[in-house]
Every structure is written in C-alpha cells, then in structure tokens.
Amino acid sequence: MMRIEHHVCFGGAQEVWQHHSDVLGCDMRIGVYLPPQAKDGPCPVLYWLSGLTCTEQNFITKAGAQRYAAEHGIILVTPDTSPRGDDVADAEGYDIGKGAGFYVNATEAPWSAHYRMYDYVVDELPALIEASFPANDARAISGHSMGGHGALVIALRNPTRYRSVSAFSPIVAPSQVPWGEKAFTTYLGADRDAWALYDATALVSSELNERLPLLIEQGRDDEFLANQLKPELLQLAAEAQGQPITLNLRPGYDHSYYFIASFIGEHIVYHARAMKA
Ligand SMILES: N[C@@H](CCC(=O)N[C@@H](CS)C(=O)NCC(=O)O)C(=O)O
58 C-alpha to center of ligand 1: Å? Predict the structure, then answer.
C-alpha cells in the first residue's frame, strides 16, 4: 500500500492510497477519510460506491462528507469504480468498461480477466482496510447511481457483513433499464438468470433470510429518474415482501453531487447510529 495523498481535513485526514488488488489483477486507488477519533482507537467504516465515470476522487472532492464523518467518528472508504490499467479491457462510451464496473464479477471475455468489482468490494477491500487502518468491524455501505445499485446488491446479499445500507439515486432494477441491460449483457452474457444475483429488485423479490432496511434518497428532477432509475420498482417489490424501505423523493434535486452534498449528512447520521448500536 502506498499513500499518494494526505490532506488534513476537519481535524482528521483525507488520504488516497494505491494498492495492488489480487482480485482485480491491477493497481487500485482508494479514498480513505480518517476522522480525528481514529487517533484514539478503531472507528466504524462507511463504504461509498460511486457511479458511472467516477474515480475515488468524485465523492471526496464533491460530497462534503468529511465534516459529518469527523463529527460522528466514521471512517469513509471510497474505492474506484472499475479495474484500471493499460491491460484492462475498455470500450467506447462512458457506460461500459473503465469507470463502469457495475460491481459485478464478469463472466464474459474479455471482461472476466479483471472486472470482479463484486468480490473486490465484498472481500478484498474490507480485509485490507481492517488490516491497515484503525477500523473496527462495524461496516455500512452506500453509493450513488451505479454505486447505489452496488451498495443495495452487496448489502442484500451480505446482510450480516453490514449494519446498514443506503443509496442515492440508485439503479434499482438493472435488468429492466438500458444502463443495466447493456452492462449485464456485456459482463454477464445473454442469460438473464445470471443477472438476478446483481439486481436489487430481483433480490428483494426472492427469499432472503435477513432483511436490512433500505434507505433511498432520490431527486424528483433527476434526468435519469424515469428511464434508468425507477425506484418505484424496488419500492413495490419491497412492500410485497415485507422488506423495510424508506424512499425519500426530493423535489427539485437532480442527479448530481449537489444533491448528494445536500443529504449526505443525514445518511452519515443514519449509518453512525446503526454502526454504534
Ligand atoms: N456522463 C453521463 C452521465 C454520467 C453521470 O451522471 N455520472 C454520475 C454517476 S451516474 C456522476 O457521478 N458523475 C460524476 C460527477 O458528477 O462528479 C452523461 O452525460 O449522460
């Protein structure tokens, strides 16, 4: 692990680290915000998964989350959104390839060589964080858009590993919208049965042993709301299964980090309560 950025921030530090990922077979960058409380002992960790086109930088420079993490003693971990490097497959367009890993383990060539973001976020990343930083084993997960999809899927499939989950403007039913259909066809192949494991709405509709409450923040004026996000599909599936869900529709807000910055404080309080309970 090599530290490539260090900035004192709200009494703690915003850092960026680079490490070799065995799961992805490439070097990866991670944003790590250490609150001032981390100097005195282990703190809980909130993992943030970003959306299409993002790196580890978008959340740490735009969301304004450090103020709240410092107040509540939460470490923020923000991985990149895909494998990186010259030998990693890529494609034209922002919605496939680098910056668009969709938090799946790809099964189709050439993607399957490196695109294993599901295993990276679920296993390798927390093991690395908990071995390298003053982190305890209380974890929460959140994300935006493609990253909101990742956070929901990962928490639904691993409910005992996370104390809480939330999502901003998530892709809740990737099998039913253009972004998801394109990505899943590319990474997972044409067989839609393989897609269900990475589709929050399909997962909620299946038998789950444990059901973490879902907290969703969504701007009503989000330009992707009607054709890519469709949070009502998840809400209907959750209500049919008795899965607790809170969908906050916020008039006027769009898909951008201005929306995230407006509500990230409330989400950090939510996760801090769950992780300290
Ligand atoms: N570039 C795409 C949209 C990509 C996009 O909106 N990305 C969101 C996540 S899905 C984002 O966080 N962008 C980076 C940023 O706002 O900092 C387009 O023009 O349609």
Answer: 10
